[in-house]
Amino acid sequence: MNGLDWSVLIGYFAVMVAIGVWSHKRVDDVSDFFTAGGKMPWWLSGISHHMSGYSAVMFTGYAGIAYTYGVTSFVTWSFPIALGIAIGSRLFAPRINRLRSRLHVASPLEYLKNRYNLPTQQALAWSGMLLKIVDVAAKWAAIATLLSVFTGLSLNQGILITGIVTGVYCTIGGLWADALTELGQFVIQLLAGIAMFVAVVMKLGDHGGFFGVWDEPELQGHAEPLVGPYGAVFLLAYLFIKLFEYNGGMLNQAQRYMATSNAREAERSARLSAVLWLVWPLVLFFPMWMAPLLVESQKADGSDSYALMTEQLLPHGLLGLVIVGFFSHTMAMCSSDANAIAAVFTRDVAPVLSTRARAWGRRSGLLAARLTTVVFLGLSMAVATQVDSPTFKDIITVVIKWVAGLMGPIAIPMMLGLLRPFRRSGPTAALTSWAMGLLAFWLVNYPINWSVEGGVPLEYQVSIPLAVSLVLYVLIGFLKPEDTPERLAIIERVNTDGDDDASGAAAAIPTPSGGVEDAVGRTRVGD
Fold first, then answer.
1. How does residue 86 score in pLDDT terms, banded at 50, 70 and 90?
2. Where is 516: in which H helix or E strand?
3. What is residue 208's predicted lDDT score, i.e. its pLDDT?
4. Which UniProt keywords are listed (predicted)?
5. Given this model, what pLDDT does residue 33 score?
6. Is 288 inside any structural domain?
7. What is d(CA 14, CA 188) in angstroms, rounded to the nearest whole number?
8. Can you give the C-alpha Rg of the chain in angstroms?
């Protein structure tokens, strides 16, 4: 990097902070901070949903998969995400939006207290927060790895720089700042991705051109859709996992659906995100597939290949723009995760731990949300310094094994609890499926994996926990139905069209005492 590249990078950081400051004016309470007050346009929500699913892991871990195996990186990653979001646009997006418009919640987990019970809500909230700390830590480590290639900064220095800048704009501006910066980041990504695509295509003339290049020995097997550990079982497992994860199971995407004005707008938002996931990664992945022709990775997993290729092919200025693109991915995802976890803590966890938190007003609640965001970012940055330790092994292991494997037990009760066919599943089904899914993850990844020669295949490591949770959730619901009138009332509120309350009025949910209760458990008598 030279002075021009540094100017582009510093200018980008300054613009992100400025957007956060501007967004601060639009945040008056926790509803604005966590769900943009339900006023976000569907197209902005869709772009934000798309961008919040990326990080620099794509340019490190997935770049390594593309370098080693080729097009399977698209077939087994972004394609199942696109398909999962497309399915979720009808199945989950409208219902998640109604959590805000009808049940008056600001956290995706807030409705679980009434849908199941308080212990279930707390179990999912705490485990979801802990998993997100590990997930975001992997993202910090990924961008710091890339930054070290270009600048020579240490891993910890890179984590500190990106974490502080992200913390400034997402803490003061909330979800509005996240979405607006993600819009700007999408434009930057578009320019940077096209620049890299063109630079690589121009180099292919020496290797048979755009179509003939696949015959090169360095790309042998790269055109095969399913190779190595990424076979048909992995694809099916990943599709099922991403159906839950990218439609709200990892919380931050759920907020994008909640931020739109009504259920129909949430559905349009999801469709836009699905189209972007289907088309845009092809442009980003193509240079990675061609990387073996152009550079020789210095790492066994090929995770540095994209960064090396960028340095080799792009002039200064454009190099800085691509580096900004790396940052845009990671900062988009980490800021949205921080906002989601702050919502879970301030709305779901803190009121249980403290009587004072139950009485938070507009100002005190907003202050708590911002402080929680800072604490979450700090914890994830601390964990990021350990991401290459023997516990985690490497970045891609954290993202694929830990996140995909642990997400299912958390997402199954949250997501399926919205749907009528699973109305019989109550707190017993939810807690049992959650606990046994976590136990299955530990067993299949550690004791069983260590005892089997060659280890348990990756597709089973990530899919078995979700499968265990799903089977138990459905089976226990059938054997021990807990579909009370109060729970059925919530399910009906999020499954029926016609009277969306875009202003966010609380839903009237009958209670055994004869009063009514909103989705966070505050009883209102006499309505």
1. very high
2. strand 516-517
3. 62
4. Cell membrane, Ion transport, Membrane, Sodium, Sodium transport, Transmembrane, Transmembrane helix, Transport
5. 61
6. yes
7. 14
8. 23
Neighbours of 492 (CB within 10 A): 13
Token duo for residue 491: 């399910």
Residue 404's alpha-carbon distances to 54, 60, 195, 441, in angstroms, are 15, 18, 32, 10
Q: What angle do CA 82, 245, 375 make, to 5 degrees?
A: 125
Q: Which one of 12-21, 66-75, 316-325, 402-411 scores highest in mean pLDDT? A: 66-75
For tokens 């604490």, what's the residue?
375
- Who has greater pLDDT, 349 or 155? 349
| CATH number of domain containing 45 | 1.20.1730.10
Cα separations in angstroms, 428 against 352, 402, 489: 20, 25, 19
How many structural domains comprise the chain? Answer: 1
Side-by-side strand order, sheet with 523-524:
509-510, 516-517, 523-524
Residue 27 clears pLDDT 80, i.e. is over it = no
355 Cβ contact list (under 8 Å, min separation 6): none
With helix as H, strand as E and coil as C, how does 342-387 read? HHHHHHHHHHHHCHHHHCCCHHHHHHHHHHHHHHHHHHHHHHHCCC
Instruction: Say what the pLDDT of residue 524 is.
Output: 37
Range of the domain at 371: 3-393
- Answer yes or no: are the C-beta atoms of 410 and 109 closer than 8 Å: no
Q: How many CB atoms lie within 10 A of CB 143?
A: 28
- How, if at all, do strands 516-517 and 509-510 pair? antiparallel
Q: Residue 40 in 3-state DSSP? A: coil
Q: Is residue 475 part of a domain?
A: no
Asked whether residue 44 is assigned to any structural domain, the reply reads yes
Assigned domain for 248 exists: yes
Tell me how far apart the alpha carbons of residues 464 and 432 are, in angstroms, rounded to a whole number. 15
Decide: 108 and 323 in contact? Cβ < 8 Å.
no
Burial bucket for residue 316 (CB in 10 Å: 0-12, 13-18, 19+): middle
Better-predicted residue by pLDDT, 206 or 196: 196
Q: Could you give the C-alpha distances from 357 to 212, 239, 287, 454, in angstroms and in order? A: 64, 39, 50, 50
pLDDT in tens, 482-512: 989 999 999 999 998 754 444 433 333 343 3
34-48, 288-302, 326-340: range with lowest mean pLDDT: 326-340
Enter the DSSP assignment of 105. -
Q: Is 230 helix (H, G, I), strand (E, B) or coil?
A: strand
Task: From 6, 517, 520, 66, select the one nearest 304 (Cα to Cα).
Answer: 66
Say how far apart CA 76 and CA 306 lie, in whole Å. Answer: 19
Average pLDDT of the chain to the nearest whole number: 78
**Mean pLDDT, residues 338-362 taken together:** 77
Q: Which two tokens stand for residue 118?
A: 């308080």
Q: How far apart are CA 474 and CA 57, in angstroms?
A: 34
Per-residue tokens: 57: 């892991």
Give residue-wise pLDDT tens across range 291-316: 888 888 877 778 778 878 887 887 77
